[in-house]
Amino acid sequence: MYTVISATNRVGSNTIKIALQYLQLLKEKGIEAKFLTLEGLDINERNEGLVKVENDLLIPAEKFVIITPEYNGSFPGVFKAMMDNNDIEKVWWKKKALLVGVSTGRAGNLRGMEDLTGVLHYLKVVVHPNKLPISIVNKLLNKDGFVEDKATLRAINEQLDDFIRF
Prior knowledge:
The protein contains seven helices and six strands, in the order E-H-E-H-E-H-H-E-H-E-E-H-H. It is α/β, with parallel strands linked by helices.
């Protein structure tokens, strides 16, 4: 099973829009995928809600697709706090991850994906080498919140196809 993670708690973010498009594309490819957003999730301590997320979405997953925005040159602290409060051995060890960076700037959160790669390696997660930076995301999304740009869609589909074989 796959779990697509929108790694921010900002309501209505561009990150969640990209994550939902990845979820849709995986389903079109015949891949069962669950979806996790950090919106409304209390991650500041290990609590009943976080344990439910672990049991339903994180522990059963063999592969994660993590969509992360750029926050101050890295990835969101809320995502790191969630990871810090997880049962890391059950949730993360010996699993695989695909990283997608989202930003309104030019770099598509390249630094954040590198920071996150270091954390995931520490948690014994194998990170797929094709990390996709999606730059100027605010200009790529149509009024319905989907990417229609052919070059970006081609890059996303190639990345997903590689990850499915990974």
